[in-house]
Amino acid sequence: SEKLQNLYTILTDYYPDFNDDKANQDEVHRKLYPEQPFSDNRLQKAFNSLMTLTKDFLVQEELKGDDKLKERLLLRKLGRRHQYPSFRDNTIKQIKKIKENSLLESNHYLEIFLLYQTLYFHPNTPKLDRKQEFLTEMLSALDAFFATLALQLVSAGVGKILTAGGETSGAIVEGLQLSR
Asked: Model-level pTM greater than 0.90?
């Protein structure tokens, strides 16, 4: 709105040394609402609206450079908007794209698991269709995640740290003990 544009212009006069004292608030209010008496509530609403627009702008700027995040947000939206065929096809496409990476690390397997999980638990996914092995693929990705994570931990020497205290628990730690 025009008021928010005016507020932004007014605030640039104070940049970079913004000051919270009452005199500046009065001055900003007087410039923004010249015909109205000072109202802290009115001024705070204008600041809050400007802050909301600023946050939205920053999110948009961040999305410009992150295609992976844009694709995930698109999948989420398609899944929620009853666009199941497009949601399914785009999810499978994302999984294939990750799998094409020649260096699959634990985080890649986790991404694959999460995508299969989202796909499998979508209300429109047939759960017992043998042609769609989403459950099997999801669990395989989870196994691969834990296996590669254990290998990463062992190669980083974490196995010695985790098992040095004597008592250990959990499948990863047990696997680390076996690898010593």
From this structure: no
